[in-house]
C-alpha cells in the first residue's frame, strides 16, 4: 500500500520592512550588512533539505507509479491486439507480439526499428 502524500502548505516570509539593513564599515574597508526588517508579520516555510526532499519524494513516487501503469497498459494493449488479430483473421495458433524496446543482442539485417513504438517493420 502506498503512503498518502501530505501536501506542504508553503507560506511566504513576510516582514515589516523587507530588504532593509544596517550598514557597518569595518576597519579593512569591507561592509557588514545586518538585516533590520522590523516585525515578522508571517513566519515563512523554511526552504531546507527536509522540505525539498519531501517534494522530490512525491515526484519520484508519482513517476514510479506512472511508469508502472504505462508498462501495464502496454502489456494490456498487446493482449488486446493479439486477441483482435486472432479473432479477425480466424487464427487459432502462432499469433504473438514481441516488444523491441532496444535492439540489444539483435542484428537487424533489413527493416526499420521504431524505438518510440518499440516495433520492427520488416
Describe the structure.
The longest helix is centred in the middle third of the chain and has 40 residues, at 49-88. The protein has a domain at 1-45. Strands 1-4 form a two-stranded antiparallel ribbon. Strands 2-3 form a two-stranded antiparallel sheet. Strands 5-6 form a two-stranded antiparallel sheet. A hairpin with a 4-residue loop joins strand 5 (112-114) and strand 6. It is an alpha+beta fold and 122 residues long. Helices cover 33% and strands 17% of the residues.
Kindly summarize this structure in a few lines.
This protein is an alpha+beta fold and 122 residues long.
**Distance N to C terminus:** 44 Å
Radius of gyration: 30 Å
Major beta-sheet overview: 2 strands, antiparallel
Number of helices: 1
Shape: elongated
Order of helices and strands: EEEEHEE
SS class: alpha+beta
Q: Considering DSSP H and I runs of 4 or more, what fraction of the residues is helical?
A: 25-40%
Strand order within the widest beta sheet: 1-4
Strand content: 15-25%
Mean pLDDT: 86
Low-confidence stretches: none
Number of strands: 6
Amino acid at each position: 500500500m502506498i503512503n498518502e502524500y501530505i501536501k506542504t502548505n508553503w507560506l511566504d516570509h513576510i516582514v515589516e520592512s523587507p530588504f532593509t539593513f544596517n550598514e557597518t564599515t569595518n576597519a579593512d574597508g569591507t561592509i557588514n550588512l545586518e538585516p533590520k526588517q522590523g516585525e515578522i508579520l508571517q513566519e515563512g516555510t523554511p526552504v531546507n533539505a527536509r522540505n525539498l526532499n519531501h517534494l522530490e519524494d512525491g515526484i519520484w513516487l508519482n513517476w514510479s507509479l506512472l511508469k508502472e501503469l504505462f508498462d501495464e497498459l502496454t502489456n494490456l494493449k498487446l493482449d488486446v491486439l493479439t486477441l483482435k488479430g486472432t479473432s479477425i483473421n480466424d487464427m487459432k495458433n502462432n499469433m504473438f507480439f514481441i516488444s523491441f524496446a532496444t535492439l540489444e543482442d539483435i542484428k537487424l539485417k533489413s527493416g526499420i526499428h521504431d524505438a518510440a513504438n518499440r516495433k520492427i517493420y520488416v
